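Writing this down once: the sequence line spells out the residues, with the fold written below as integer tokens. I am pasting one below:
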Amino acid sequence: MASTVLQVRMDDSLRAAAADIAEQLGLDLPTVIRMFLKKMVAERGVPFSLSLPREPQPQYAALAAMQELGRQAARAGIADMTLDEINAEIAAARG
């Protein structure tokens, strides 16, 4: 049987986390990917549900809040403050 190489770009942390889970299952990442593709062919579709959550998820709300704080900091010109500068501002505010 002829074989081919499949290259996939992904975030390093995603790859590491997936490889760690695969290793805990006694598998390597290429085997897991082959298993996924074989299941996809057998089911003639993606072998898991693809749907949006019914209600907003807390992690998305937290991410949105952090992004908004970042935008506010950028508008105020303080987005690039060092930790020492932040701590000095806090100490000054506390008196």
User: Anything to note?
Assistant: The chain has two domains: 12-43, 58-94.
